[in-house]
Amino acid sequence: MIKNMHKTFSPTRGIRIRNLYALLVGIDNYPNPNHCLQGCVNDITAIAEYLHERFERTEYQLHLQTLKDKQATREAIINGFREHLRQAEEDDVVLFYYSGHGSQEQAPQEFWHLEPDHLDETLVCYDSRTDGGWDLADKELAVLIAEVANNNPHMTIILDCCHSGSGTKDPLQEVKERRLPTDKRKRPLKSFIFTLEELNQLSGLREIKPADSSTGWHLPKGRHVLLAACRDHETAKEYNAGGQHRGRFSYFLMDTLSKTNGKLTYRDLFGRTNALVRSVNGDQSPQLEVNNPNDENKFFLDGAIAQLQPYFIVKNDRTSGWVIEGGAVHGVQPPQNGETTVLALFPFDANIDDLRNPSMSVGTAKVTQVLPTKSKIDIEGVQNLTTERTFKAVVIGLPLPPLGVHFEGDEAGVNLAREAVKTAGFDGKPSAYIREESTNPEFRLFCRNQQYLITKSQDTRPLVKEIDSYTKENAQKVIQRLEHIARWTTIARLSNTAATVIKSGDIKMELIFDNHELSQVKQIHLQYKYENSQWQPPEFKLKITNHSKQSLHCSLVNLADNFAISTPFFEAGSVRLQPGEEAYALDGIDLVLEVPDEFWKQGITEYKDIIKLIVSNDEFDARFLTQDKLDAPRPPIPRNIDSQNLSSLERLMNRMQDRDIKAKTTAKYVDWYAEEVTIITVRPLNYTSIFQQQH
Known about the structure:
Elements: E1 2-4, E2 7-9, E3 16-26, H1 40-54, E4 60-68, H2 74-84, E5 93-99, E6 102-106, E7 119-123, E8 136-137, H3 138-149, E9 154-160, H4 196-203, E10 225-228, E11 238-241, E12 244-247, H5 248-258, H6 266-280, E13 287-290, E14 312-317, E15 321-324, E16 342-347, E17 363-370, E18 375-380, E19 391-397, E20 403-409, H7 411-422, E21 434-436, E22 443-448, E23 451-456, E24 467-468, H8 472-492, E25 507-513, E26 516-517, E27 523-527, E28 529-531, E29 534-536, E30 539-546, E31 552-560, E32 565-566, E33 575-577, E34 582-584, E35 591-592, H9 597-600, E36 606-616, H10 648-656, E37 672-682, H11 687-694
Parallel strand pairs: 3-4, 3-5, 5-9, 9-10, 20-21, 20-22, 27-37
Antiparallel strand pairs: 1-2, 2-3, 6-7, 7-8, 10-13, 11-12, 14-15, 14-19, 15-18, 16-17, 16-19, 17-18, 22-23, 23-24, 25-26, 25-30, 28-29, 30-34, 30-35, 31-32, 31-33, 31-36, 36-37
Helix pairs in contact: 1-5, 5-6, 7-8
Keywords: Plasmid
GO molecular function, one term: cysteine-type endopeptidase activity
């Protein structure tokens, strides 16, 4: 290679290697202790490790600058744009990632024609709230982005912060929000990085307060993609991920990226991240904004992420012992509550076909510890194992740990619930779905005033009707409901972290509403229509098409807001599609989405359905996943399964079955993939008044 400054040329191809410039900012420890956060530096560390390990080295050169805590002053961030990111030329890639507090500030009177509320949206730098310090206003961010955009690079902006909300939280909501109160100081015009004339010139290049902006960030029309943690009226929350503090948005964004093999479009990245964030709690909705509609279908960072091989290299490391060359940034999941990632080992010279043939396997390995770029393993069954040997490894099993529940309140109720968990599983064994967890729970079980109340860990709203009276039977009933919710949550988050051969886009899922295809959107709002003197629920068709070169088995699963799971789309639970073949759900009959009366009568006008597409190279029956709505929990489920050699998809199916089964020996290692689309149905509360308003 011949290098010239930041330009690298290939003598054999004569093509300039593209540059990836990244500026990553994370601030936990603000000067005021009351302003401190806990997960921002972890967010930046995670994305930095991901970029280092996963960028496409044959086509890109990485230039990374990180600013953490004290380093992230206002001046340093501005210089990061002007001295680092502005080096990007046409066809280069730029990433600005901010994780910290957002806020607002009093806008100078000269800006009032741009800001009807007389407030600027801001990023809170390390020294912003000190004497003489100021936030980085959205207009300043707009100027910096416009300066970088002048050379026409591919630009991505990621903001894990917010500028709305009260800045307070419920005592039961033990989670921090990434927002500081509005800065009430009068800021002089001269403190901005531009003159008034420059601002007026910039305002001609952008829409001030665009009507279709749901984030509240008003950035220039210089071409860029914006991923934001939440809507403008919501707050960005922190999240406890296995004992590590993270931003909820950043954690699930990185979870999606690390579990994806290779390139992912912004639309798909947003859709998966949004579904995962909202599965924790519906009070935070990530947003994707582009000023060129075609950019939604561009690859994240314009394809700068390399595709993983569908296997890991196994070797003996002098310091760590046996390891696979894959860690957290590659999507390897750590051991959790007795479950871990299981791999089949093959000779190093095995080809792709060999890796799918169990008879070619020479042993297995279990992950014991996951590090950022490698994972420690224990090897089993390999004959004549010496430290000089190397192997290829394929993931054949993923951990499916039970979800954590925090029990609190009256001792009598708590003790009964604890006893119920111990015997909720098959043959009087502990529950396979939930466990008591106080440090990082998914849900809470409140025992108070002779009532059992189930909530999410960061919310106080009940998920199911309260159960009255502390009795053994009622304790068993509430544990069954918690298991019911846990099953739903596990399926909603179902994804394959292995480097699969099946890719996003191999099977295309299309929603057709009023003859318009909605497949480009991962979250859809459908509204009731007033027809024939009454409100009619929305109808749509659902189609899947095989764009791959192999035969694939596909299923569609509906996860409703009342925690019901159904598979009504295909008679056999799944359908086999040959390359180029398509299939309509219910043979093309219109599907109807409704807000159930029991929700609507309580004043709930929005109802969420998740339609999950599951694709596999082997036949499976998704009907094993079905369950009734929450208020009709089914009886205890027998589970007598030897799952050692099953894929995580098969093990999950087996856990859901309502009859005693034995696991069959698979003829090949199963490759599978899952994605989803969220549909929110809106039903007006007052028929008459709304109709009159419309007419």
